[in-house]
């Protein structure tokens, strides 16, 4: 049996908050469309920090930092990851298009692209829209997007929790976008 020893936090060579703010971010923005759970919002902040996501757009009823319940899952990432608030998600998507982003809803749609078949292009900027825990991404927002991405699922359930979805999708995007830097 091999010797496995958990690393101490001081051995992980993590960025400081100041270094994180200065680090080159991935050309990816996460849009939260009417997400109600503070746990989910905090988890998206924490995952976005882990993968050097450029920014999070909080829309509609989605709460904004600071908030003690959000902090429980964000663990301070709400202070490192850049964020902006939009009253309406449609405004955020419109702004992203004006700024040259390809906007993709994470939703089960006719003609959606399965996440494992997703092809990204070097030099392009992307945004992903994650929807409400019950209703998903609003149809009006889906209509504005450049496409939809779906996570393949093989069991009896038809959806995943927002924070789980964010982890899967952001890992896939980060893996591909970081590969373009090589």
TrEMBL record:
GO molecular function terms attached to this record: methyltransferase activity
Domain of life: Bacteria
Keyword RNA-binding applies: no
Domain tRNA/rRNA methyltransferase SpoU type, residue spans: 28-171
Pfam families with a match to the protein in the record: SpoU_methylase (PF00588)
InterPro entries in alphabetical order: Alpha/beta_knot_MTases, rRNA_MeTrfase_TrmH, SpoU_MeTrfase, tRNA_m1G_MTases_N
Keywords for this protein: Methyltransferase, Transferase
BP terms from Gene Ontology: methylation
UniProt keyword Transferase, yes or no: yes
Protein's recorded name: RNA methyltransferase
Organism from which the protein derives: Phocaeicola faecium
């Amino acid at each position: 049996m091999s010797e496995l020893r958990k690393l101490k936090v001081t051995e992980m060579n993590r960025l400081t908050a100041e270094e994180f703010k200065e680090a080159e971010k991935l050309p990816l923005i996460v849009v939260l469309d009417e997400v109600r759970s503070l746990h989910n919002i905090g988890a998206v902040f924490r995952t976005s920090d882990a993968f050097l996501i450029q920014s999070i757009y909080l829309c509609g009823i989605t709460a904004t930092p600071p908030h003690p319940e959000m902090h429980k899952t964000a663990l301070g990432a709400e202070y490192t990851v850049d964020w902006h608030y939009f009253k309406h998600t449609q405004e955020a998507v419109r702004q992203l298009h004006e700024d040259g982003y390809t906007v993709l809803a994470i939703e089960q749609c006719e003609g959606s692209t399965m996440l494992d078949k997703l092809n990204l292009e070097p030099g392009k900027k992307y945004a992903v829209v994650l929807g409400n825990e019950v209703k998903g991404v609003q149809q009006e927002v889906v209509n504005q997007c450049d496409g939809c991405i779906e996570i393949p699922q093989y069991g009896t359930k038809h959806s995943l929790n927002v924070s789980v979805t964010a982890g899967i999708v952001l890992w896939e995007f980060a893996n591909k976008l970081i590969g373009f830097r090589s």
